[in-house]
Design brief:
Blueprint: E1 2-5, H1 9-14, H2 16-28, E2 32-34, H3 44-48, H4 52-66, E3 71-74, H5 77-86, H6 88-91, H7 95-100, E4 104-106, H8 107-114, E5 129-132, H9 136-140, H10 157-161, E6 169-171, H11 186-189, H12 191-206, E7 212-215, H13 218-231, E8 236-239, H14 240-244
Parallel strand pairs: 1-2, 1-3, 3-4, 5-6, 5-7, 7-8
Amino acid sequence: MKIGLFIPCFINELYPHVAMATLELLEGYGLTVEFPLQQSCCGQPLANNGDSVGATQAARHFTEVFKSYDYVVAPSGSCVSHVTHHYDWYIADDRDYQGLKPKVYEIIEFLQDVLKVEKLPKPVYFPHKVSIHQSCHGLRELHHAAPSELMMPFHSRLADILKLVDGIEVVTPERQDECCGFGGTFCVDEPEVSTAMGEDRIAQHEATGADYIVGADSSCLMHMGGIIRHNGRTIRPLHIVELLTGRGGQP
């Protein structure tokens, strides 16, 4: 199969190591992966700020760039959920998009639902305690975990795939699915509330005794990471693809 690697713009600019870890992970399973240079923002910030014209243009551009691939994979639940759940607001009548939509996957979804992996491409030993952070888009639109409001037994895709890592101890905070406060442009419009939410969320992760906060969205990890650095805390954010490729560092 031919995979189109979709790297969200903020990951491309701020977290290229996450992009490289995603590529390494996919190629480790023997897949042919291409990074189309024509790709740009998926349009989520435009949509969130009411720019319907810009959001429509971004959706059509994304579709044109990726429509020929067997699958499109990205290390961001937020951007994937925008493409798969919100493009219909703008280009529902686009046949190419309707053909593309079921082929767009967040990386953990892809590994579990398409590849059905039972082991990692190479053994990874990570003798640390990690606290799982369930980002809102991944949680409620991509079903990475069971939202607490449904009052059903908790499960987590992230926790499940981390069972493939040797030496790791996986825990979850008391409030398993609480928002970190980032919320895209919310953190700009309401910085005080956003920061307070982030501080509360970090404290919940710290209470587990974890060395790392592990998540699947660099945006949430960026928000919490900024608060952690500002306050001189020792817990560290880590994208799950870095851990699965053995790229995780020391706390």
